[in-house]
Amino acid sequence: MSMAGVVLAGGKSSRFGRPKMFEEYKGVRFYEYSINALFNSGVESIYIVTNDQLAPSFKNMKAKIIIEDESHHGPLYALSYAMRTIQDKDWFFVLAADIPLVSTDFVREMCTLAEQSINDIIIPITGDKEQPLLALYHHSCLPIALELLAENRKSMRPLIEKANVKYVHFSSDQKDFMNINHQEDLTQIINKEIT
Ligand SMILES: Nc1nc2c(ncn2[C@@H]2O[C@H](COP(=O)(O)OP(=O)(O)OP(=O)(O)O)[C@@H](O)[C@H]2O)c(=O)[nH]1
């Protein structure tokens, strides 16, 4: 079994107001947290998937950069583009750069689940929230994803509905899975209102 880590970092950040993947928490940029969580976790190689405008601003020796041929088509397109580009891996561990504080232990535990899995997708549930952008996707998802994209269906949801999905419950620090969409979300973490 071989696995690639895929950091999704090519969104518009329209709610945040500036490219949020480059924001810092405790002196580390969001996308670097995602890379660090994947590093030494069982994932063999790490990729940042982004667009041509943002690409020059990523600086990290641990990850390679994949530049989408078309920008802003959303996470399903980004994942399928990564799967088309990286052809020698069975599994793709997706981490959204705007959920930066996930731990290596979480990634390791998910990787262990993939070893014996006959599923197409493994999705964690944290609290009562499904986390499709912190999930494992088998290469078998690619034809389904391409079919959906050809129908202009760009959300992850129809892929999840069509694929064979395993859900796994995680109880963890709320902060680990905090999704940063607005500047106030970051302020909340910094002010330790979320513990
Ligand atoms: N590579 C890539 N990543 C994306 C794309 N769209 C969203 N993402 C990433 O997916 C994660 C979730 O994105 P969202 O917060 O839903 O969308 P966003 O465009 O970043 O932000 P909003 O404009 O505020 O909705 C973030 O880490 C984004 O960087 C895309 O088209 N390509």
Automatic annotation (TrEMBL):
Molecular function in Gene Ontology:
GTP binding; metal ion binding; molybdenum cofactor guanylyltransferase activity
Catalytic activity field: Mo-molybdopterin + GTP + H(+) = Mo-molybdopterin guanine dinucleotide + diphosphate
From what superkingdom does this record's organism come? Bacteria
Give any single GO term for biological process. Mo-molybdopterin cofactor biosynthetic process
Kindly state which keywords UniProt assigns to this record, in alphabetical order. Answer: Cytoplasm, GTP-binding, Magnesium, Metal-binding, Molybdenum cofactor biosynthesis, Nucleotide-binding, Transferase
Q: Where is Mg(2+) bound in this sequence?
A: 98
Q: Which sites bind GTP?
A: 8-10, 20, 98
Q: Which residues form the MobA-like NTP transferase domain?
A: 5-162
| GO CC aspect terms | cytoplasm
EC category: transferase
Which cofactors does it use? Answer: Mg(2+)
In terms of Pfam families, this protein maps to: NTP_transf_3 (PF12804)
This protein's domain notes: The N-terminal domain determines nucleotide recognition and specific binding, while the C-terminal domain determines the specific binding to the target protein.
Q: What is this protein called?
A: Probable molybdenum cofactor guanylyltransferase
Q: What are the leading ranks of the lineage?
A: Bacteria, Bacillati, Bacillota, Bacilli, Bacillales
Q: Which gene encodes it?
A: mobA
